[in-house]
Amino acid sequence: MTRGAALRLAAAGGLLAAVIHVAEPAALIATLRQADRDWLLLGLVAALLSNVASALRWRALTAWLGAAVSPSFALLAYFRAMALNALLPGAVVGGDLYRALALRQAGLPTLDAGLSVLLDRVSGLWVLLALGAGALPFAASSMGGAPALSPAWIDLSCAVATVLLLTAPLLLVARPIDGARGSRALAALARLQSRLRRPRVLQQYALQIVASLVVQALSIAALAAGGRALGLDLSPAVWATAAAPIFLMAALPVSVGGWGTREAAAAAVLAVFGVPAAQAVAVALIYGVFGLLQAALGGALFACRPQAVPRLG
Predict the structure, then answer these.
(1) What is the DSSP secondary-structure string of 166-225?
(2) Residue among 262, 279, 264, 278 at smallest CA distance from 227
(3) How far is 83 from 80, CA to CA, in rounded Å?
(4) Quick one: 169 exposed, middle or buried, by C-beta within 10 A (0-12, 13-18, 19+)?
(5) Mean pLDDT for each consecutive 10-residue tract of the chain (313 residues)?
(6) pTM for the whole thing?
């Protein structure tokens, strides 16, 4: 293990220990013991379906970029990547590198293989932010001491979130970028745009958005089910608003499997909605266990031999 990885591991462990200390271990344990098993099972199923949808979304993107991978290959690679995410410092980075390598070994050029993983990851995070922004006005009335927003502000916020969701990323392919006379960053952006200006870009973008909405809806449902298991009866808008910072913090490459950063974000965000620290941290821990169980499945799949993957001509 490198020094940087050891430092990240120590930092993640220290942050998680600090969050648990703030939530009071005795209260946290008592909260977890009262969890409803039916809601826990429902949350696990939702989390599993979310990652299955993620794998199939990634498969559709790779097909658009030129590699015809089978659903079984995509699922195998995706859940193996989850196992690496759970084990390696750096949150989702290790698993994403594995997916790119799997596509490279399947015959997709290195740039396109990495681009498929990058676009897949960014599209999910972008939709998550848009959902959080759109849900925030509806969740505002649940905030402690926050006045209810007028319908006009709600409509405006949702309109802005919708415009961002549907149009902003398309600016990258709207007009050709001349990177010959610009900076290195502009040249890199022009090279990226050349890869994205492929046939059926609008159809693929629409598919990516719809698939990401399904993925994030299932992920938010899993988080909410964990909360319901602990007796938290919050509105869907609250869970969608809270999920954005919680999931984003878990994805930062400064932890191991999101542990520590996810729990800290949950404690901070859910406190705004009046959730005690013990319950907020417990919700994040439950969601982390959902991921850990799937990572264990991915680890078992390392014993499987992937099938040969044909390339599209």
Answers:
(1) HHGGGHHHHS----SSS-HHHHHHHHHHHHH--TTHHHHHHHHHHHHHHHHHHHHHHHHH
(2) 279
(3) 5
(4) middle
(5) 63 76 87 94 97 94 84 90 76 76 82 85 88 82 58 65 68 61 64 70 86 95 96 93 92 76 92 92 95 89 59 41
(6) 0.85
